[in-house]
Amino acid sequence: MTTDTAELPRIVCITGGTSGIGAGLVAAFLASGATVYTCGRTPAKVAQLQAQWAEATASGHLIALTGDVTEAAFIAELVAIITAQAGRLDVLVHNAGVILASGDLSESVTAWRMTLETNLIAPFALTQASLALLARSAAAVVITLSSACAQHSFHTCTSSSYSVSKAGLDLLTQRLALALAPRGIRVNGVAPGVVASDMWGEATGLMAATVAQRHVLQQQFVTPADVAAAVLFLASPQARLITGAILKVDAGYTLG
Ligand SMILES: NC(=O)c1ccc[n+]([C@@H]2O[C@H](COP(=O)([O-])OP(=O)(O)OC[C@H]3O[C@@H](n4cnc5c(N)ncnc54)[C@H](OP(=O)(O)O)[C@@H]3O)[C@@H](O)[C@H]2O)c1
Questions:
Q1: Averaged confidence pLDDT in the chain
Q2: What is the mean pLDDT of residues 14-23?
Q3: CA atoms lying within 13 Å on the CB side of residue 232
Q4: Is the pLDDT score of 6 beyond 70?
Q5: Share of the chain above pLDDT 90, in %
Q6: Whole-angstrom Cα distance, residue 220 to residue 214?
Q7: Ligand 1 midpoint to CA 50 (Å)
Q8: Confidence (pLDDT) at 256
Q9: Ligand 1 neighbours by CB, cut-off 6 Å
Q10: Helix (H) or strand (E) holding 227
Q11: Which of 103, 150, 166, 244 has its CA 20 to 30 A from that of 188?
């Protein structure tokens, strides 16, 4: 898949851009010439991203904020900053996500609530708050980060709350696609297989075993760059008639 970066939109917001897939998305969109707004909860990780992209930060092409997308006040702050500085939003990527527990009946209700707040409700709330900004773009796109675990109960998908949050996010993606089509706004999802990232925490053994078992195409990890290529494609004019799609980037994880 090749994407003509010269045609890519310029004002981009990526939640959770301070590590893993989000950091890969920040790099890819900055390389395309975009101005990128991003955020994360941990100040040290935000500072590290700013240091990594010192020139882009100094020139105002990267605006990295400390904040939590589950908090209404932070969503309002983020939208207010983009409104004041850019006046519109071309691409909104709901990347921030968490796995807080594993198990079917052993996860705490607190973990369930926080997982749904982060992975499902925050993307709805931020999309809703961004509508005026998206409406001012000539070709706005919203992209959600789903998962190979969204539509399957494979035993390698160990967190019920996570899988359910991503299943809900897939349906939210489709409903938003339908609701926003009359305004010319496209909404799509990308569903990665296993990407080596902080999200896996200590579960590196499970991570490697899942790749060996489920990534039937070459038993390789999906990389943040693989995911970014799919997101850039969906954000490009080449995807102008694609909406409501969930694009798998999973090395065959979900084939069986
Ligand atoms: N890694 C995989 O195998 C995989 C597979 C399929 C889908 N995904 C999805 O891809 C997305 C990115 O995952 P990843 O693997 O890159 O995880 P990661 O390395 O843990 O990165 C998650 C990012 O989101 C931020 N974040 C988490 N909660 C937040 C909140 N409430 N408010 C603001 N920022 C928040 C984190 O920073 P702070 O912690 O500092 O807030 C970090 O920047 C997630 O939606 C995940 O479900 C991952």
A1: 96
A2: 98
A3: 27
A4: no
A5: 96
A6: 10
A7: 18
A8: 85
A9: 15-16, 18-22, 39-42, 45, 68-70, 95-98, 118, 145, 147, 192, 194-195, 197-199
A10: helix 224-235
A11: 103
192-210 in b/e form (b: 16+ CB < 10 A) is bbbbebebbeeeeeebeeb
Q: What is the DSSP string of 23-45?
A: HHHHHHHHHTT-EEEEEES-HHH
Task: Write the Ramachandran bin of 201: left for phi over 0, alpha for psi from -120 to 50, otherwise beta.
Answer: left
User: What percentage of residues in the chain have a pLDDT greater than 70?
Assistant: 96
Residue ID of nearest Cα to ligand 1 atom 9: 145
Domain annotation covers residue 253: no
Considering the domain boundaries, does residue 255 fall inside one?
no
CATH code for the domain in which residue 184 is found:
3.40.50.720
Question: Would you state the structure tokens that stand for residue 122, as one six-digit string?
Answer: 């925050």
Catalytic residues: 162
Please give the average per-residue pLDDT across 138-155, as a whole number: 96
Q: Is the pLDDT of residue 9 over 80?
A: no
* Residue identifier of the C-alpha nearest atom 37 of ligand 1: 40
Q: Is 108 within the bounds of a domain? A: yes
Which residue, chain included where needed, has tokens 């980037």?
A: 249
Residue 108: give the domain boundaries.
5-244
DSSP structure class, residue 137 = S
Residue 83 lies in a domain: yes
pLDDT at 8: 55
Number of domains in the chain: 1
